[in-house]
Amino acid sequence: MTSTKLTGLLLATTFLAVGQTAAAEEVTIYSWREQEIPLWQYISDNNLIDGVTINFVRLNSDDYDTKLRIDLQSGGPDIFQGRAGAAWLASFIDAGVIAPLEGVDLSNMAPAAMTAAMGADGQVYGVPFAIQMESIIYNKGVFAANGIAVPTTMGELAAAADALAAAGVTPMSFGARSGWWLNQVVGEVMTAGMVDDATAQGLIDGTVCFTDPAFVATLQAVADWQAAGYMNPSPMADDYGAMRTAVALGEAAMMIDGVWSSGPTSPMYEIDPGLEMGFMPVPGDNGKVYAFGDGTYLANAASEKAEAVAAVMAFTATREFAELFVAQVGELPAYGAEYTVEDARLNMVANMIATNSAAPTPFFAYALNTGEPSYGQLVADGYQALLSGGSSAEEVAASIQAGLNSWNYVGAANCQ
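Predicted structure:
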């Protein structure tokens, strides 16, 4: 067994536990993360939280926010997973649904991951659960069968795509019907690969405008891939699931996605149990992957099971939970102290995050998402307009800038 210290990194399905005593109190957790089903089943079945059983409810990712808000109006779950960043947390804080976290030792959590749980007031509201990496993911078997070396420049990427297309393989699978994937994954991976960190930070600070040629180039690259026939014929008709299916089947060679798709519970392995995936940044001038604290476990302040909820929340901040998270979910936990990682894939991902990840994260930036329309919504809408042929890269960039200016975001005065 090897022990990897990860301090310093960027830094509906339901089950009921069985075999528990009648005295145990049931805590309901809402999540969009299918990959956590076996984790919480294991915790509950093995009585790892004394006196508590878990009812883990997995909701569809596309509908998660809406369903969660509706259910919270009539009590809702005891604990729910929140997406990262102060902008997402804001409405729940304002409504009194969540309160600053107390009684949980967070001293061993990765410091950079804590931003996922932090409100605009600087207070921590939950326990972060994972460090994620997003990049181009490629089917190693397809690359090998077609003699493709991992591209290190945009020119090499285009040459690889030409060779794949000539062999009847779709070079890049896009699931553009899923708006969340466009803004949280595509937008951020393209920026990390093509826009230097200083310029990306300027986009967040408002000192650089979204009409800057460096940002426009990220949009133009995607438009060029589509025009060159490097994508599936109708990217707007395919969703996230269809995108992953195409790569798993070997019909497509690459996709832009998160490392979670390579974990042991990924549905891609149901299609091809022997599937091997590799990771690479968009090989632009910046050439970095995108990494972030994924989200948080949040306690519903209205739960009538406060003691049991507190026990669950405390458990999620422990080394025991971190090692279970690695073993059961196959992802890097937000735990920042030493813990055991036996998975070579995760050790490689941890190294890529530590040595070659972009620092700025526009999608999660409070300054870009505190008003409406948010940066996230504008990017999703913009990419869909681009891929449907309704707008050029320059027009999409101008639309993003105008949308942000409409609510006087931090860069409005500089970017009129």
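Summary: Residues 1-22 have pLDDT under 50 and may be disordered.
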